[in-house]
Records
---
Amino acid sequence: MKAYTIIKTTALILALITASITTAAAISCDCGDICVNETGWWRDSGAFNASGAPIQDAVNNASSGDIICVNAGDYAENVEIATAHLTLAGEGADVVTVTADSDDHIFEVTANYVNISGFNVAGATGATGISNAGIYLNGADHCNISENTASNNKYGIYLKSSSDNILLNNTASNNEGDGIYLESSSNNTLTGNTVLYNYEGIYLDDSSNNLIYNNYFDNANNANNVYDDGSNRWNTTVTVTPGSNIIGGPYLGGNYWSDYTGDDTNGNGLGNTSYNIDDNNFDYHPLCYLSEASVKGDLNGDGAITPADAAIALRLAATGAHDDAADVSGDGAVTSLDALMILQAAADMVEL
């Protein structure tokens, strides 16, 4: 009887262990090929791998083409990425923070076609003369760096000998040196970035043929907005493009410069004179805030309220951008209600 009880108990324990192992091996990862949290990483329906450096270990175990999803949390790592066609997608710069040993970069990319988005990177300071950065591309081409915050580093985002990359909608703030630094890097596109509280906003060293537009540079907070010893394009094509810009205006053109002193006489949100960076580089369409005197609802500056203005208001609402002329409801925000009211005004149904 005792033997039977022992056998039955042993079988039950083995069954529980087997069930536990099966459950552990069936963790889902529904946002990509590999998931990461603060304590480890796993593949969809695969075993959990505990790690003290889970992002780096996930990268080390990834294959070209994999998407690595990083869950919200605080990570203390220096991550080196040498695998091409790899995507690191953080859950959001407001919830995923990666800090690092101050004597190294936080993300260092040496492979092509790498995408990094949704991270707050901080703490890459280093000793005097060390060029540590929050995100560092070294000989890396065709990468996409987007929706990140790089703060409290020596440099925010640093490209060295790296070309054909896209820097999109990043914020570089409170870095000791420069917010964005390009060294011997060409044919990159920088758009939608906000650069604040750095020594230089953006520094281009021996770098040419880069397209830089729709960025926000605040000279009141940067020691200097820009240094450029090459030849780069600081605005879109000569003909500006309709679309909500980084300060809520109705056109894409150049960049916003807080120290721009020109006028916007036609009220379209673009300066009438160029912003002169140096003798070789000019922003021919600097962005301006729309005048408080602008007609409510006339968002394209043509002197009339039309369905085109309603379409612009809808784009502003979708992107969360603000334009006083578009806030016809007076609630302090641009929403679909404002777009509807402008459309009704265009049809003479209401008066704004």
---
Amino acid sequence: MSVNTSSTENRIISFIKQNPLISIYIIMFTIAWSVMIPQALYAQGIISVQLPGILEIFIGWSPAIAALIVYGVLAGRTGIREIFGRFLIWRVGFRWYFIGIFLLAVIILGGIGLHVLFGGARPVIPAAGKPLWEVAVTVLVFLLLLSLFNTEEIVWRGIAIPRLRDRFGMLVTVLLIAIPEVILHLPLFWDTSIPFYQTVGIYWFSAFSIAMVVIYVYVFNMTKGSLIIVTLLHASQNAWSTLLSDNSARPFHFTVALAWVIALILIVATRSHLGHQRDKE
């Protein structure tokens, strides 16, 4: 029995060492989906038992847990410090902090503005009418909580980009990140307690995700691989979506279009390198 157990452990460790990124994806998906799928099944009335809400923490922490396991196997504490050390890259210029916090607000408001400009009804903006201080406090709270409880950027940007970009080039890297990122969120499209995903649908969500990955990759490359800025960007994306969007489909369509305009400008302006300069790595 112990021989078989040891053999199985050796095969697992060997697989992780040969396929670290795939291993991270497998662990991350297993942890996240073990919570997301039962939530979706409960929302659909297929099962009658609802998971405790505290387990949702593991959805956001699943990337960090996966990274800790895999890099612990690969290089022990040194490997773990290598990945999480990217959070210490903070001297990147004030403008990147500004972009990280406010870019998504500009894109979302721009989408709403285009929607109204082309004849759409003015949507209800949740933050409208609230005092500026209240909006500011809400954003700060969102940024803090979402930065702590959503660790996706450790995997998508901190690990996947450096492992993929030199081998496949930046545009293929974008797809190799965007596809699993969309797949990770698939159970949410059956979770009726989160109306956004049912309203916008998988195709528009996928289009938005691909455009945003281009932007995230560019920001990551331009900030010397800092995980602080892309984590702020991701947290602000969720924060501003909550404060500025009423989950209507048409304004989101224009938001997607605006995100694609920015993404295409970055691709053309950087000749598809998206800020990556191999000779400076």
---
Amino acid sequence: MSDMSGASGNSGNFKAFDSKFMGRPVQKSPEQKLRDVSDMYEKHFLREMMKAMRSTVHEGGFVQSNQAEKIFKEQLDDHYVEKWGERGGIGLSDMIYKQLMDKFGVMMGIKAPVAKPQGPLPFDAKSEYRAQPFQHPGKKQAVSYRIDVNRAETPGESQANKEPEAVKAPWDGVLLGKRALVDNQTMLEIEHDNGLKSQMVFKGGVSKVSTGQKLQAGDTLGFLSPEAKSLYWTVEPEAEPGPETVSE
């Protein structure tokens, strides 16, 4: 009876199970989940590449590979793929991760949304400009707009008397280059701090800005000519070579 009472008295002193048996699965961050998905796609690509390479090697002779040897080769290929992944892979995972981050980062709350641009022209309620999207030749990943001037002329007002509209930097960045084109047109390229790049083509001149100069959002880059009808603005995540767009 004493043993039983003793056991009953110590009922609250049972030793807890080791935490390794009761531990919860580690919750991965959204960034790590995107990284894991990127690595998974790269490894899948490498495995398919290994299969394609082995399919080009035809078996010959009297001895044919049995099922066990085929399984061993598949396991060996998996081992190679894992080792390649541990050493940094072939760069495909990084490319996929960047694309996923650009597409879903804001939605998942792990990437700050791009701030509203402060240019290249005003788009408030009283704006005289209207933007129309179009596909820039050779820039599939870019978003391009043709910004048309819709200002109604006042009776007696001439083109020369119109006050030129300032072309401004949409976001912070660095001026990559400026170039004079035909028909009094100008092309400007800016590398923004948010990872985007702008190309603007318009009829008009450039203000006192120089290549390599640090720009703040809203800084004046140039001025539209009074006879300018449109400004073309292309935004892309990375530099892509392609034909130039000219304004009217």
